[in-house]
């Protein structure tokens, strides 16, 4: 309960106490607090034990490439079979799910169904053996009033078993301010996946944060009166929940059928606010080619009745219930609308059709280096495209086949045909371009860019992601890092000469063998003075060395503590830089790895004999990221095998997966000055791509 409300209760109780007899056993203020706390505790204990945290390994797309990450949300167990109600945006783009219970138990879950139009989804927990779950129930009716106390439960910022208290501000709120045009409401809530079309929100001030999404809003009777979905970052504690009765209807339908079937007319409604009318609901927009357009409905019409029953929406908050009423009609049902326009009334008879998908599935297609979404008519309308099907380019890998096609494709292009074959979906694309083309010939891609129909030649790339760099020409190397010392800097420091001061000596390097130390000042090579161009660049030294021959015997002159020194060395070949080492992108781990080189060992102060594989990067939601591997780690053992190189890493992973026993696979890594043990979960290795 908010502090201001608590202070009001205490103030009232204290006034009552002032008039109370001295012999009263328990002060009324304490009794009021005790009763209030007991009521909240009873509601909490009824629901909080069945509130869960949801971990979603989701696949997003960045520059045409799939990237796994981890997101989290909240949910509530709502059936003895372990069904969990949550938000659709919590499960969005999910590849794998885990549910964490209040007691810390963690179980895998499957997606039963999702409904983006209501932003609701259902998961089902998969226990190792059959189990009956405790569960909470949705309220049957929305009987909230402003000022009613409510409890928000969930996992804000991933912190499970959290609860906050507040009051209902408004039980029927549309997110349309005094300054907004209600016609833009749906588009603001999601361009390609509109939500909130069929209900008004419960506005309350119980604190919620990212991670609370999908968690329950609970009244003092312990009923789920809402599903927390949205919050405001600015403007105080403004939170919004899907009404519990509406959510319960959708959740039960998803459990039964896995999907929601709705009717569609192809029109959008708005309230009469600002029109000067007080009867009916306004037709705000009509889709081209829709049932509504074919029946003669036009923007500006007012619908007065539906099958003889009068309907009116005077304010924006009245519209969702009418849209839901139409959506819940059986698909294929005939209905009669009474319509008014410019003083004339008429009847319009039309037949409903099934609600089409708002957004098509998005996938990455590696041979093209592009991410593509199946176009839907709704997506085409929003982009003002003629096309109603095809593959919409949503992202491109820089330098990838699609980006360098002739001409290059761009995000927003719609691919229609490849080598004359239509590609309306991912399956068709895979059938046409999933294998290397005969003779290595490029593919002819027909695509639409805005109003233009274009063609391009595209050479796809098939195969793994093992990268072997081209061999570099060897260069001479002295084995030190240096700091430039200009003539003016040498004078101000009191040094006997300008040149390059040694800041690091690599073990076993030519100058190390010649006796050089950190702090020595190198002033000449083979009698030719070393001169620093400025106080920032050491290129003058390294370029002089690289100009010499590998294996050449060279004399360096310099100073140590002001005394002249000379170092006779045999120049070696420079160790390979990181860019010259082989890399391997391990799909099963979703990690980028590479060979360990000389500079890796030097940076970590490891012996020259140390073997291993360096982790260059991990995807947060991949198995490596979930095991907490980090860029810079050196993998030295996986499972029961030592890892010496890239081939050894692959072999160790294959062996560990083939063995198939145990929940986790241990991974030993070098991190900084420590040797650590991490654990790969077999579940993530088998459930993520």
From TrEMBL:
Residues 254-311, 347-432, 479-537, 583-673 form the PDZ domain. GO terms for biological process: proteolysis. It comes from Arenimonas malthae CC-JY-1. This is PDZ domain-containing protein. Keywords: Hydrolase, Protease, Signal. PROSITE patterns: PDZ. Gene3D superfamilies: 2.30.42.10, Trypsin-like serine proteases (2.40.10.10). Transmembrane segments: none annotated. SMART domains: PDZ. GO terms for molecular function: serine-type endopeptidase activity. Residues 1-25 form the signal peptide. InterPro entries: Chloro_Bact_Ser_Proteases, PDZ, PDZ_sf, Peptidase_S1_PA, Peptidase_S1_PA_chymotrypsin, Peptidase_S1C. Belongs to the peptidase S1C family.
């Amino acid at each position: 309960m908010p502090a201001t409300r608590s202070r009001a209760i205490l103030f009232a109780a204290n006034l009552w106490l002032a008039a109370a007899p001295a012999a009263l056993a328990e002060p009324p203020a304490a009794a009021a607090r005790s009763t209030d706390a007991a009521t909240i505790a009873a509601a909490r204990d009824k629901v909080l034990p069945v509130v869960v945290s949801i971990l979603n390994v989701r696949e997003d797309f960045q520059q045409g490439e799939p990237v796994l990450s981890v997101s989290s949300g909240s949910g509530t167990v709502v059936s003895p079979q372990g069904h969990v109600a949550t938000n659709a945006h919590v499960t969005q783009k999910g590849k794998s799910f885990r549910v964490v219970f209040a007691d810390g138990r963690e179980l895998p879950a499957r997606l039963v169904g999702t409904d983006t139009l209501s932003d609701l989804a259902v998961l089902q927990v998969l226990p190792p053996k059959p189990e009956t779950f405790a569960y909470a129930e949705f309220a049957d009716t929305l009987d909230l009033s402003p000022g009613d106390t409510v409890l928000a439960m969930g996992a804000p910022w991933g912190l499970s078993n959290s609860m906050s208290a507040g009051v209902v501000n408004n039980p029927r709120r549309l997110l349309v301010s005094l300054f907004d045009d209600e016609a833009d409401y749906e588009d603001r809530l999601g361009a390609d996946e509109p939500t909130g079309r069929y209900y008004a929100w419960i506005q309350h001030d119980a604190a919620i944060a990212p991670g609370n999404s999908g968690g329950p809003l609970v009244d003092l009777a312990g009923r789920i009166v809402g599903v927390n979905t949205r919050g405001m970052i600015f403007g105080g504690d403004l939170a919004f929940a899907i009404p519990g009765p509406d959510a319960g209807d959708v959740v039960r339908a998803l459990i039964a059928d896995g999907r929601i079937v709705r009717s569609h007319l192809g029109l959008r409604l708005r309230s009469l606010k600002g029109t000067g009318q007080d009867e009916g609901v306004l037709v705000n927009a009509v889709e081209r080619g829709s049932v509504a357009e074919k029946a003669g409905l036009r923007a500006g019409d007012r619908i007065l009745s539906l099958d003889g029953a009068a309907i009116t929406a005077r304010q924006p908050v009245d519209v969702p219930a009418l849209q839901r009423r139409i959506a819940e009609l059986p698909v294929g049902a005939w209905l009669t609308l009474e319509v008014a326009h410019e003083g004339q009334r008429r009847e319009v008879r039309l037949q409903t059709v099934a609600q089409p998908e708002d957004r098509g599935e998005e996938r990455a297609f590696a041979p093209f280096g592009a991410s593509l979404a199946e176009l839907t008519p709704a997506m085409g309308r929003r982009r003002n495209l003629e096309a109603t099907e095809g593959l919409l380019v949503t992202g491109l890998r820089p330098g990838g086949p699609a980006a360098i096609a002739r001409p290059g494709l761009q995000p927003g292009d719609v691919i229609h045909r490849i080598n004359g074959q239509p590609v309306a979906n991912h399956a068709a694309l895979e059938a046409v371009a999933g294998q290397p083309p005969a003779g290595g010939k490029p593919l002819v891609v027909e695509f639409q860019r805005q109003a233009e129909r274009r063609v391009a030649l595209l050479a796809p790339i098939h195969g793994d992601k093992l990268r072997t760099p081209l061999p570099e020409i060897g260069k001479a190397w002295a084995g030190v890092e240096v700091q430039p010392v200009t003539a003016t800097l040498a004078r101000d420091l009191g040094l006997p000469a300008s040149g390059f001061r040694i800041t690091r000596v690599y073990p076993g390097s030519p100058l190390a063998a010649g006796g050089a130390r950190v702090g020595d000042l190198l002033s000449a090579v083979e009698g030719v003075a070393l001169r620093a161009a400025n106080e920032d660049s050491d290129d003058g030294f390294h370029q002089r060395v690289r100009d010499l021959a590998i294996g050449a015997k060279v004399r360096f002159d310099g100073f140590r503590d002001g005394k002249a020194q000379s170092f006779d060395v045999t120049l070696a070949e420079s160790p390979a830089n990181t860019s010259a080492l082989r890399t391997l992108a391990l799909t099963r781990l979703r990690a980028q790895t590479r060979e360990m080189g000389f500079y890796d060992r030097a940076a970590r102060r490891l012996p020259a004999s140390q073997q291993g594989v360096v982790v260059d990067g991990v995807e947060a939601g991949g198995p490596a990221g979930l095991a907490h591997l980090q860029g810079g780690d050196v993998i030295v053992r996986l499972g029961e095998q030592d890892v010496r190189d890239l081939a050894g890493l692959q072999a160790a992973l294959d062996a560990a997966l083939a063995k198939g026993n145990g929940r986790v696979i241990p991974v030993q890594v070098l991190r900084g000055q420590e040797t650590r043990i991490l654990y790969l979960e077999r579940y993530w290795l088998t459930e993520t791509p």
